[in-house]
Design brief:
By secondary structure, this protein is of the alpha+beta class. It has helices at residues 14-24, 74-92, 149-153, 159-180, 183-191, and strands spanning 5-11, 32-38, 57-63, 96-99, 103-106, 109-121, 124-134, 199-204, 207-216, 222-226, 229-233, 239-240. The protein contains five helices and twelve strands. α2 (74-92) crosses α4 (159-180).
Length: 242
């Protein structure tokens, strides 16, 4: 990943820019589109991704996962989450968890988020654009639930070096999925889940309840046990309250 790199000082969204560039000319797999500032960065479920200009890493990776069945697309979320969490742990030596579906958590605060947008033609993927935001050098956030590598370590990081390191970890997990199959990434993802096997409070359809995260199924649905019953939830159907 990263053998072809497109840098722009500012853009509306690296995912959108990657899509626009790909419509004009096919981008090779592994192309990176990176910027210092997104004016309209997007996160999971339509949330805005707010990032201080020039302080953090905001980029997108163009993938062509033709080896994946469409119903297995959540495996790309697993690849992204494992790659980012592996890099952050390697850099900081701290426990890092993945909050389903794909927020990366450090010390109970969000350090990274992922937005994957797939382009499908018939029964196969044509492109998958993996958008990543990683909090690197920002020293504070309006939302108290966010954290950066700087806030944890007290040091500044070179963004180019961080980009290269993240890409190496992403490539490792992507190739692992491609060569060894779904099981090679699914169990490590489940093992890294935030609040895994812990009793927590959830909200679904306006109702709060206590449950235990027991895993993720093949379609990326979260398995939560309430009492003696285990239910499966899609994104937006359930929220971890605390």
């Amino acid at each position: 990943m990263g053998k072809k790199l497109v840098f722009v000082p500012e853009c509306h969204s690296t995912n959108s820019l990657a899509q626009e560039l790909g419509q004009k000319k096919e981008l090779p797999e592994g192309t990176i589109v990176v910027t210092h500032h997104q004016s309209r960065g997007r996160g999971q479920q339509g949330n805005a991704w707010i990032s201080e200009a020039g302080k953090n890493l905001t980029f997108s990776v163009v993938l062509k996962p033709t080896f994946l069945a469409i119903q297995d697309q959540f495996l790309l979320n697993m690849v992204a989450s494992l790659g980012i969490s592996g890099f952050v742990h390697h850099q900081l030596g701290r426990p890092v968890r993945v909050k389903w579906p794909n927020d990366v958590m450090l010390d109970d605060r969000k350090i990274s988020g992922v937005l994957i947008e797939n382009q499908i033609k018939g029964p196969v993927f044509t492109n998958s654009i993996m958008g990543i935001g990683l909090n690197v050098n920002q020293k504070g956030f309006l939302q108290g639930q966010a954290v950066s590598m700087n806030m944890v370590s007290g040091q500044d990081f070179d963004l180019q070096s961080v980009l290269e390191g993240v890409c190496l970890h992403l490539e490792k997990w992507y190739l692992r999925l491609k060569q060894k199959g779904a099981a090679s990434v699914r169990q490590p993802y489940v093992d890294s889940l935030y609040a895994y096997n812990e009793t927590r409070t959830f909200s679904s359809n306006g109702r709060q309840f206590e449950g235990i995260i027991t895993g993720v199924d093949g379609h990326g649905r979260l398995a939560v046990k309430e009492g003696e019953e285990t239910r499966l939830f899609n994104t937006k159907e359930i929220q971890l309250v605390f």
